[in-house]
Structures are given as structure tokens and as C-alpha cells.
Amino acid sequence: MSESSAEAVAAVASATGAAANWRRATGIAGAAIGVVAAGAAAGVAIERLTVGRGMRRKARLALDATGPYGSLRGTPGKAYADDGTELYYEVDDVDPDAVPALGPRRRRLFGRKAPAPVTVVFCHGYCLSQDSWHFQRAALRGVVRTVHWDQRSHGRSGRGVRQVQDGVPVDIEQLGRDLKAVIDATVPEGPIVLVGHSMGGMTVMAFADQFPELIRDRVVAAAFVGTSSGRLGEVNFGLPVAGVNAVRRILPGVLKALGQQAALVEKGRRATADLFAGIIKRYSFASKDVDPAVVRFAERMIEGTPIDVVAEYYPAFDNHDKTEALALFTDMPVLVLAGVQDMVTPSEHSEAIADLLPEAELVLVPDAGHLVMLEHPEVVTDRLADLLTRAGAVPAGANVGGYGSTSSTAQPG
Predict the structure, then answer these.
(1) How confident is the model at residue 239, as a pLDDT?
(2) Longest dimension (CA), the chain
(3) Domain boundaries defined on the chain
(4) What is the distance between the alpha carbons of residues 409 and 123, in angstroms, rounded to a whole number?
(5) What would be the CATH architecture of the domain defined by 75-231+322-390?
(6) Which of 219, 158, 210 lies closest to 187, judged by CA?
(7) Helix (H) or strand (E) segment spanning residue 79
(8) C-beta of residue 337 within 8 angstroms of C-beta of residue 350
């Protein structure tokens, strides 16, 4: 383990000590949680930042004021999970007269006349929000009906009722049931395309596992972006073996302790914003020339996830195993896409999914990290548009732009 990695691990470990040490350790502990919030693990070595702190602060404020990302809004609504959690969603509708001709799978499922247009349901990842699909949403507006929703305790959705009242950690099965509640509210009939990034892809798998009849009867295509069907406990996040083992031993206890001191830790996260930003960039993007406004957009989403939410979700990933559920997607068009340099859900996990779905299109994007749909939106949008064409959701030759509009004044399609 490098010297800087050892120092970071020691700093996180100190956060589990006596209450008297909390204030001193908060800044470093908050930064460590930033690693988790970015989908990584504590103990990473961070390159020294050379730009002045005041200049970086001014740059963040400027990007917050001018960046259009995440500004697209649709028709809002609320669904309710089986424990009463309020789940926020938005729908971008299209003119029903613009519905394309039926493809062969849709004819088989719905007869000669479909009861409703295809709806594409987007599921976001850990510590993000529905806005993480900004570019794809912009490109598809007016072309196909889409649903964007926030996972429980993320974005505009309510805090998980079971988590708050009963102290029950989140599991992936719960997220699958949450997706069912959203689909019941937004797509009561008609064909569906499911799209999931990272934890969102796991949510789709859990939904399939629990509601296989809905997959067989109504789902006409699926896209799994930067996700995994299991064995996440083996991911090393780019750390040496000793560092990974140390982190795995202490991290559950650290998260539990920090989650109980949420207010103090949030102050620490704000105080260490520069370090936090460096961690996010390292674990979210691989390109050296990624748009700073996009990086800042990702920071804002991740920063918006409270530490107690980070803590209550974390145990779910080691237990995630939905390999068998993938068989339900064998008879439909499927896209499996990942960044080659993704250190959170490595591209090998996407290759494993594609091995189980031999008819799926596997796309590995060079020079791309975990947030590939923000880093290389043109690639993701292009392959997603092709998937929707193959599924009969959009007509061949439809005007789907690579980036789509990022105007802050864009209106729902």
C-alpha cells in the first residue's frame, strides 16, 4: 500500500474512535465518505491539487450558475412503495400519433395494435438522481415517451420509510419493488424498455427476479449501463490488495458510526470540498478533457446524498446477486455498455452479463469511467437509439441527436 493510501486508511479508522475525536476526524472522514458516495472505497491516494482554493471555489460557483445540466423537467408525479415511501418521477410524453409501426416482438406481445406507445423507464445509480440521464433525456425528447424517477432517499424522492422508522438497511430487492410501484403509476399498460445504470441496472435485475411475468409480457428491450449482476465484493477500486482488505474490514463500522453523526459529517464534507471533488473525478471519469461543468454536475448530485443514506445503502451491494434473473432478457434486444476504465463496476462485469446474453450488443467505451453516460453521452445515446429502433420504440431514421439539447429553457417534450 502506498504511503498516502496508508494515511487515508488510518484517518478513516480514527473516525471510529471515541466521541472526543469526532471533530478532529470529521473533515477526513467526510472525504472518505465522498469515496463511497462516488461508488468507490476509502483509502485512495489523491493527487495534490495545484490551483488555489479560492479560485476553485469561484469556479464551482460559476459552473453552478451557468451549467445547464440537470435542468430538464417533465410532468411530475409520485408513486408509493410497499412501505409507503414516496417516489418522485417525471414523464416526458410524445404525440400519440407519432407512435412508430409495431416491431415483431411488439406484434407478438400485443397483437396488431399496441394498447399504448413504448415507454422507456430510466433507473439511476447510487448517490445520483434521475438527472444523471440528462443528455439521453434531452436527445429522446419528442421521439419516445420516457419516465425518469429518483430512487428512495435520492433526488426528490422521500426518505425510505423502513430505513427511518425501523432502521432497516436498503436491499436491492426493495429497489426492484420500488421500480414496480413506479411502473404501476406511470406505465399501467403498453410495452416498456428498461434502462439502468449501476445500481439502476441492479434494480432492473431485481425487478425481473421478482416480477418475471411483467418481463415476459411487457418488456420489449433492456439496457444495462456500467452495472453488475453480482460479485461486487471482489472489486478492488484500483487499490492494492492490502488497502482493499483494510477498507473492507473497517468500512461497515465507519459508515454506521458516521451515519449516526450525519450533521457533523456533512460539515466535514463541505470543509473538504476540494478533496471530495478530486475523489469524485477519479472514480467517475477517465477522460482528461471531460467538461468541467459536467464534472461539477456530478459533484452536485453526489454531494446531495446525505451520509446516512450512503450508509444505509452500502451493505446492499456485497449481497447483490441477480445472475439467474438475466435469463429473462434472452428473447429481446439488449444493450450492455460500460467504460473500459470503470473502477466502480469494472467492464469485466458487463462482459459477464453479455456472456449470459449472447444476443446482446456489448459496447465497451475506451477512455471512459463509471459515469459513461455523462462522459461520452454521444456514444451512449447513439447505442440507446439503436436499441430503441430494434425494439420498435422509435422509427428507423428518427431524429435522435448525439447530445440532444442542453438548454436550461427546454420544455417537456
Answers:
(1) 62
(2) 70
(3) 3-45+54-67+233-316, 75-231+322-390
(4) 24
(5) 3-Layer(aba) Sandwich (3.40)
(6) 219
(7) strand 75-80
(8) yes
Q: Report the distance separating Cα 253 and Cα 258, nearest Å.
A: 8
User: Could you tell me the three cell numbers for 165?
Assistant: 422508522
Distance of CA 86 to CAs 47, 71, 188, 320, 330, Å? Answer: 40, 22, 18, 24, 33
Pairing of strands 145-149, 192-197: unpaired
3-state secondary structure 152-209: CCCCCCCCCHHHHHHCCCCCHHHHHHHHHHHHHHHCCCCCEEEEEECHHHHHHHHHHH
Query: Looking at residue 341, what is its pLDDT?
Result: 96
Which segments within 333-402 are labelled E, that is strand?
334-339, 361-365
pLDDT at position 306, please?
A: 87
| Structure confidence by residue, pLDDT tens digits, 52-62 | 455 555 555 66
Q: Which of 334, 357, 355, 338 is nearest to 347 (CA)?
A: 338
Contact indicator for 158, 86 with CB cutoff of 8 Å: yes
Question: What DSSP element (H or E) covers 237?
Answer: none
End-to-end CA distance of the chain: give it in Å, rounded.
51
Q: What is the DSSP letter of 80?
A: E
Phi, psi angles (nearest 5°) of residue 147: -125, 130
> Which regions in the chain score pLDDT beneath 70?
1-67, 96-115, 236-277, 397-399, 401-413
* CB proximity list for 161: less than 8 A, separation 6 or greater: 81, 83, 84, 85
